[in-house]
Every structure is written in structure tokens, then in C-alpha cells.
Amino acid sequence: MEDHLHESLSLPPGAKVLDAGCGVGHVALHLAQKGLHVQAIDITPNHAMWAQQEIERRGMQDTVHAQWGDYHSLDFADGVFDGVYTMETLVHSSDPSKAVSEIYRVLKPGGHVVFHEYDHIDITKPPPGCPPSLVEAVARINTRSGMPGNQAFDRGVLHRIMEEQGFVDVAERDLSDNMRPLMRLFYVVAYLPYLLICLLGLQQWFVNTEGGVQGYRALKRGYWRYMVFTARKPAARKEGDEGDGPRQRRGG
Length: 252
Description:
Blueprint: H1 2-9, E1 16-20, H2 26-33, E2 37-42, H3 45-57, E3 64-68, E4 81-87, H4 96-106, E5 107-120, H5 132-144, H6 148-152, H7 157-164, E6 168-174, H8 176-199, H9 207-220, E7 224-232
Parallel strand pairs: 1-2, 1-4, 2-3, 4-5
Antiparallel strand pairs: 5-7, 6-7
Helix pairs in contact: 5-9, 8-9
């Protein structure tokens, strides 16, 4: 997925990008090796610390740096990044519109954004044949894993938020087939332990195990998708230019 992300950003070597939710820094390091200059943030202090330690261990301080940060309130000036990306982190957002608004703010005019995130059918209106246990499990996974953004991301919601915050050329692509082999592996590994967990009524305490089983079931049925959303911030309008200058932003 990291190579797909790099391709989607479509930025030249030396471009400055923000990793908005870097975890322990694997994706940021990969993109830095591709020639991008990466500023990485994470809201979990230990994650940011471990990412920076790995950066220093590899001697890559000139091209990548990690620090604590919250994408709902970014500590960067307006228009400083050529690109911004997330890799399965907006699903943890308590206010996706605010996060996307902040990402828009720190992008340079003409800058690119790429979100690798999940979306799903409206689980409050499951289709015929959808097991109630699956609906209950998905809601439980979102709650116990701290994923209010994922709870909110019915199909079309993130696309709409991006347009509302001013992004243009918003496009989306379903990469679920790319994720299916890995998700199936999680399913196979977790299935037998999950049966015992269900027998004992302990699902709320083993959310990752439940996620491995029920997440694959939802993906296989087409209820849950792994998506990449791409867009750009409108280029600054030159005097007399009738191009796609910034339009009035809503929300955020």
C-alpha cells in the first residue's frame, strides 16, 4: 500500500509532505526512502517517540521527522506542505470535518491529499441477509477501538466532507481486493480463538480478535471497503486567471 500511496501523491523528490497519524513511522520512512521530505505526527506520544527513535537509528533525520501532533489542530502555518496523507487514521477522528479542514489549511495551493481509509454501508440500515451479529460486532469494534470516524464513514461521507472543505478533483478507488488476502489471513488466525471468546461472552475484551473475524466477513460481503481518496487544493488564482482558484469553504 505504501507504493500505491507514493504513486497517488504524485509528487517529485524533495516535496514536503505531512503524515497525519504516523503510528511508529513505517509509512513515513518508506516515503522518505522514495525521496520525499516527511513531517510525521501522531497523537499517541509513545508512537511519535518510537518513530523518531527509528528515524535516528536509520540516520534519516535529514528527510523525515516525527513528533506529537493532533490533526484536528495542526501546529503548522498555512500552506506549508506539498502533500498530506493518512493511512487508516482518519477512522480514529472524533471530528473528521475538522481534521480535513486543518489538512486543507496546511496544504499549499495545488497540493495533493491522499486518504487510505475504510468506509461501509449504513450499518443502521443493514441489507437483507446481513446477520444482526455482524452489525453488532462492527459497532462494538468501532467503540472499543476508538474509531468514531469509521462509525461515521458511510459510503460517500468522506468524499462529501472533502468537497465541503474546498478540495477539487476528489476521486475514490476501491482497493478492497488488494486487502483481501491479508484480511483472510487475520480471519484464519483469529477464527478458532474467536469461537472460544464468543462461547465465553468475552467479545468486548478481545476487540482485535473480533475485528479479524468480523472485519473479513464484512469485507467479503461488500459491506466494508478499503478505499483510497485523492484530491487537490485549488491552485492560487493569478490576476486575470479564470482557473480553479479557491472556492468558498463550508463547514469546519
